[in-house]
Amino acid sequence: MYGELPPVISNQKFNSFLKEICQKAGITEDTSITHTIAGRRIKEYFPKYELVSAHTARRSFATNMFESGAPALVIMQITGHKTEKAFLSYIKTDPETNARMLLTQWNKSQQEKK
Predict the structure, then answer these.
(1) Residue 76 phi/psi, 5° resolution?
(2) What pLDDT is stored for residue 59 in this prediction?
(3) For the chain, what are the domain ranges?
(4) 59: enclosing H helix or E strand
């Protein structure tokens, strides 16, 4: 029915569903994780879908919203970050994306002046 939230599920079940969705979506490339065990660095490879979790979804949401132009303070109200500094270190943007966002904002401000 419209206007109702879905039932609450456990984080473990959510992660399981998310992994299944990512696998079906073809997010299967190998990704490495490096651990240090007893002073030795060990590199292991896993299909990317096995590493996806609710936290991955949360971080991706915050990053994608920020890159689409949503104000950081609005996103922070959803993610629960208290400071902009903490939020900006949490999201994953690269210098090229930051430059593209700046150019988009610049072009928008120039259009508004006309």
Answers:
(1) -60, -30
(2) 94
(3) 8-52, 53-107
(4) helix 54-67
Q: For residue 41, what are the contacts with CB-CB under 8 A and spacing of at least 6?
A: 34, 35
Q: Which stretches of 1-114 are assigned E, i.e. beta strand?
A: 30-37, 40-47
Tally Cβ neighbours within 10 Å of residue 18. Answer: 16
CA torsion through residues 98, 65, 49, 33, sign: positive
36 strand-pairing partners: 41
pLDDT at 105: 84
| Both structure tokens of 85 | 């500094």
CA distance 3 to 84: 32
The answer to whether 97 and 67 are in contact (CB under 8 A) is: yes
> Tens-digit pLDDT profile for the chain (114 aa)?
688 888 899 999 999 999 999 999 999 999 999 999 999 999 999 999 999 999 999 999 999 999 988 999 999 999 999 999 999 899 988 888 888 888 988 888 888 877
